[in-house]
Amino acid sequence: MSSERYSRQADIVPRQRILDCKATVIGVGAIGRQVAIQLTAIGIPVLQLIDFDEVDISNLATQGYMHKDLKRPKVDVTAEFCREINYDLQVEVLLDKFKRSTSVGNCVFCCVDSITARKHIWDALKDKINFFVDGRMSAEVMRVITACDEPSREYYPRTLFTAQEAHTGPCTAKTTIYCANIAAGFMLAQFTKYLRLLPVDPDIQINLLASEINVSEIGG
User: Which of 29, 76, 92, 100 registers the highest number of CB atoms within 10 A of its CB?
Assistant: First the structure.
């Protein structure tokens, strides 16, 4: 049964490599929830979910939560859903904000909503993990930044501009579930490249409205 489950992705997601991974998803909102679901589906053996928030009414349209989930912790709801996909999955939940002392897996998916939080997470984990990918989104624009080797680890801090430099749009134009799904897919694509020992794309920017994609080179 287990071998049949992953048979159609065998050449894309190396089974032995993924079994050595514990994935931590920090932030289980629009992008993070989709990342957790996709990681579960491709066979991550251990999944850690970190978020302090509960499901509210605005999350139903933008993050894919259900009405019955209202007022429940996002980590608990997402963990239950992931277990439905794979009963053998080991899920750890942390109903809290990420702290410097927080123990995480060797592969981290950063899905938080502020540059300040990203910088805090990177500074705490940059020397402790093997793979790091950061998903960012505003309306129909997304950015996926990956750090898993020396050049990309040196590049990533350059993307951590100050909060004052960040673009701030209206709160009604920040999140769409379809953009979140696509961003999560690009994050997983970089992860599977890492598993296959292929070069990753350090910085991908996509504008769905304009149908534009830009892949930055290191040093570019």
Answer: 29
Look at residue 157 and give its three-state secondary structure.
helix
Cβ(88)–Cβ(44) below 8 Å: no
The strands making up 46-50's β-sheet, listed across from edge to edge, are 90-94, 46-50, 22-26, 107-110, 131-138, 141-147, 203-207, 212-216
Tell me if 137 sits within 8 A of 183, measured CB to CB. yes
Q: Do β-strands 131-138 and 22-26 pair in parallel, antiparallel, or remain unpaired?
A: unpaired
Phi, psi (rounded to 5 degrees) for 195: -65, -35
- The pLDDT confidence band at residue 167, using thresholds 50, 70 and 90, is very low
Partners of 94 in the β-ladder: 50
Encoded tokens for 189: 């694509």
pTM for the complete prediction?
Answer: 0.93
